[in-house]
What we know:
Largest sheet: 4 strands, antiparallel
Helix content: 40-55%
Organism: Sphingosinicella rhizophila
Domain PpiC: 195-292
Protein name: Parvulin-like PPIase
Keywords: Chaperone, Isomerase, Periplasm, Rotamase, Signal
Signal peptide: 1-26
Amino acid sequence: MMKLGTFSRAALVLAGSIAAVAVAQTADEGAQPQLSIPDNVEFLAPDNAGVRKATAIVNGDVITGTDVDQRVALIVLANEGRIPAEEMQRLRAQVLRNLVDETLQIQAAAAEDIKIEPREIDTLFGRYAQSFNRTPQDFVAYLKSVGSSERSFKRQIHAQIAWNRLQGRRIEPFVNVAEEEVRAVIDRLNAAKGTQEYKIGEIFLSATPETAAETRANADRIVQQIRNGASFFAYARQFSEASTAAVGGDLGWVRAAQLPEQLAATAQALSVGQVSDPVAIPGGYSIVALQDTRQVLTADPRDAILSLKQVSISFPPGTPRNAAEEKLQALSKLGQEMGGCGRAEAAAATIGAEVLSNDQMRVRDLPPPLQEVLLKLSIGQSTPPFGSVEDGVRILVLCGRDDPQQMAGASFEKEYARMTEERVNRRAMRYLRDLRRDAVVDYR
Length: 444
């Protein structure tokens, strides 16, 4: 049975939703000492990084090859298996780095006597199971069937809860946002009312002049995989070196003036849903995904809530093309002549169609082509048929529309929370960097 308004999203890209929205790589990290590196690098020992096993001991805690295998299996699942063989070695190396970071986060929380109860992890695990319409027990079996495990999934949940609590104790109490700063931001927002905002996803890969060519080649491969259907969220979490990696590269809503010049030009040139070629910026390359657009402090028609009826026809396997065409024409004629939603069920019965209703469909949550069509419809009108013989064809009938309210202005509370979040995440990234620097990590 076809479901109205069901558009696939990779819910299994682990527990990223409990991480706070972070800031971009452009955050000021302070002056760094210059390293003494000769222009002509000559290695005095063989490079054996490629032959090391995917295991590590982090301050005494062991990460096994099985840990890496099971986490890789989750990423492959999130990408619907669309990871080429030549990418797997790089993916495994990145997963190992992520597992090292998780271990450091758990250890740092434990050192602060922060305890995470098993029931807390189980509760979140159950919520993820529900997102797959499974019970926790069924979800455990499902994870095992794809080569992962309950333990691997819960380990990441554990690390993220621990890291959030550690931030709450060691970072958040020392972050201050002055009222004057918030008022200044609100004044700028009010002055920018009506200008375009972009919802951006980013993947940042750092590079030096010596590694620029290799990094650009890696970035090109990532772009190609995403354009072929791989999950941007998953690739950002595993490969991005920006602080937004924890939330799948989500940079949030930004105006062009808030972005570096190169990224601003890229965002303005993209259409919603597109992913850019790698963009050279100071320090490396960025890949930009334009997820949405809106106007600052302006009600967006796409935030309207629609009441819809879906009239759909399914075709048995092997249905001849001419038979399908007849049904398609009948559905198209029905949409034009049914006379509105009140007659949808009776009209659908005459051609053997099925009717489903949804009274809470936000325009923004629909695919862009449908958004454009539905926003032009009057109550009682229907879209042209869409779909395929294999998956069924359908029309949507507009039964009602609640337009969004006009916005009065920027919210002090919202901007205060956003600015606080940004500063917390900057400090959290520096804190994790310090943990990495001081860690004793033995790769085996």
